[in-house]
Amino acid sequence: MTPLAQALAGPGGPGPWILLVPLVWALVVAGAVLVLRRTAWRGRPPWHGPRDGAGHGPSPATVLGRRFAAGQIDEDEYRRRLAVLDERSGTGSHEGGDS
What we know:
Elements: H1 3-9, H2 20-38, H3 60-69, H4 75-89
C-alpha cells in the first residue's frame, strides 16, 4: 500500500471514503450526459436523426395549391407563382398537377 492509501485507510481498512469512488464516477457519467444533451443532441436523442428541418411542414407548392383551392388567389396568379417556384427549384414539374 502507498503511504497516501495507508494514511486514508487508517488502521481498520479503507473506511467510508471508499464510497466516494462510485459517487465520483456517477458524477462524471451524469456530467457527460448533460454536456451531450446540451451540445450535440440539443435535447434530442441521437437516434431521432439530425434536425435539418427537412420534411417538416408543407412545401411552398402545396401551400400555393391550398390557397388556390380556398379561392384566395385566382388561376392566373396560381400559375404565375407556380412557374416562379419551378424556376427556383430547377424542376420542370410541380406538385398538384394541372386541372
